[in-house]
Amino acid sequence: MTVSRRNVLLLGGLGAVGAGVLSLPRGEVEAKSVSRLSSAEMPKPFQAAFVKPPELAPDRTGVDPADGKPVNYYTVTEKAEMASILPRLKTPILGYNGIFPGPTISLDQGTKAVVRVRNKLPATHPNDGHVLATSTHLHGSASLPQFDGYASDVTHPGFFKDYHYPNFQPARTLWYHDHGVHFTAQNAYSGLAGQYHMHDPMERQLLPQGDFDVPLIISDAMFAANGALGYDDNTHSGLWGDVILVNGKPWPVMKVQKRIYRFRVLNCSISRSVRLTLSTGDPLIIVGTDGGLVPTPQRVANYRHAGAERYEVLIDFRKYKTGQRIELRNLSNPNNVDYDFTNKVMAFDVTDDAVNTSDPTWNTVPAQLAPANEVMAMTEKQATKVRKFRVKRNDVTNMWTIDDDSWQDVIASGYKKVAAEVDLDAVEVWEIENKSGGWFHPVHIHLVDFKILSRNGRAPLPQELGPKDVVYVGEGETVRLLMKFGPHRGRYMVHCHNLPHEDHDMMVQFRVGLKEDDNDPNDPMTAALPQWDG
Ligand code: C2O
Ligand code: CU
Ligand code: CU
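YS: structure for the whole thing
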């Protein structure tokens, strides 16, 4: 029997948690709003000014004695702070350096990074009391396992951990977020997320930089009457807020020049997927996916974008008139819960500010971007194995699983149990099937970039024709993915990026280049321990 998500929402206990004096109205899923703010306190679209997250400066730079490569050293401090999200009320958040989104880290390929993450959070979460032990994942980086934010490799309040990032991959939009075991959803929702940009010479030449290279971190939230974040994941089905935030501001307005802009769009929602489109009917020009530049730009009238996916999009504002307002809208997708204004994301107001026409990217949509991308150049013939995975809800336990396995099973095995044992540098096809008609699952595979070969036997969607690390496995969909496992040996996670699903408990792991009883020098639980932050 297929139980649609809506039925589950209606049947399941709609228990509210924490500041959540909030729950979805019974019997009515498509509602006007879910926040408990008075109408005077409730934000309205297009009142707030757009902001860019600040860039993080390194504390110092150095050289890695092992290979002579430059290293940037950064520090971010996880802490509780008050944020200005709503027009008047303040909102308690947990943020990297106390802000949401966290500061952007920006560097060049070939420069390594060591990021010290200091956990200065309170001992427990102010809403539901879970212990605020965190694990920081740099999503999009082929990091060693002990620096990959392995869910159970947690750092407790009062400790720090140094994360080493290799930055050898092609230019891309990465993001860092909390991955603490079983509480990733609440921690990320509370604010522990930020972008990380890796540049390379080709990308610097082809695409807008600086002021015209703009992070758009889209999320959704619901608020209690006092301005605090509400949390209701509908019995672990998902959280759908009625307020859309971009870079932490509700439906902001950005002033733009008459030129081409590059937006690094990250869906940072813990559950909601969006389908973005412009109010003018003009195309969004996809130039990058999770793993970097696409071979050829793709023009789309709209596209679906799940949690954790990154799409780099050009918008061409040249032909618009001074004073014209262009809205970025959300057409939504099945199995999201929509409210009055969740169909809007942000707006752009066109100015008559002088455009620097000596910048070659001001009016250029490159014909080609990364035609030789290694991942996209792979062919299915190279694959030595096909593995099949089924994402589903277990009918008996009601837990989210991958082939009935979950992270609980990994913990119970002493972190040994794996869903796949892969040879180093093996090329494989992974087929992921979602039989359900009532749920979509954005599936993320750590370590690798993959090429989407097909969806339900057909070509991937136009926006997916670049290297990816998250794939939208929609209702009744089967996707086939091609990837090469390396360059590191060790254990890495695979999970749904609807974070309440991940936490309950749709996450497993695979092991690369090692047998179960081999000595693992990169054991994520022991190889790099947190240290007391004296
Ligand atoms: Cu963005 Cu395993 O996560
Ligand atoms: Cu990841
Ligand atoms: Cu899921």
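YS: worth flagging: The longest strand covers residues 70-83.
IM: good catch. Also Residues 1-28 have pLDDT under 50 and may be disordered.
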